[in-house]
Amino acid sequence: VQLQASGGGLVQAGGSLRLSCGTPGRIWNSLVIGWFRQPPGKEREFVAAVSRNGGTTTYGASVKGRFTISRDNGKKTVDLQMNTLKPEDTAVYYCAGSSKLGVVFGTALEYEFWGQGTQVTVSS
Q1: What are the tens digits of pLDDT across the range 19-28?
Q2: Are 32 and 52 in contact (CB under 8 A)?
């Protein structure tokens, strides 16, 4: 399963970006989808996740209230709307998919499928 992430770029602090993740495969509806990020020189951290039907979401503490994850199973996409961006949000953002039993997952070990990453840079 190849997940495809897009939408990264350069934005000023306080601005917004929207990332998108998808796959054309039939497996899509069986996947919990999560977003992770890896800042320069730091470990990968959890950003947000959404359940298979889109009804349950969870967020990392550092993005709660600023980021919104949403899912459209008809289009087979998950979007991450990022508002009020800060320089510390600068990172490579990865989408990931999990076929394991459960509603949502907040740890990278639970995800077996990963996208290629998209760079988000927030200037001060």
Answers
A1: 999 998 888 9
A2: yes
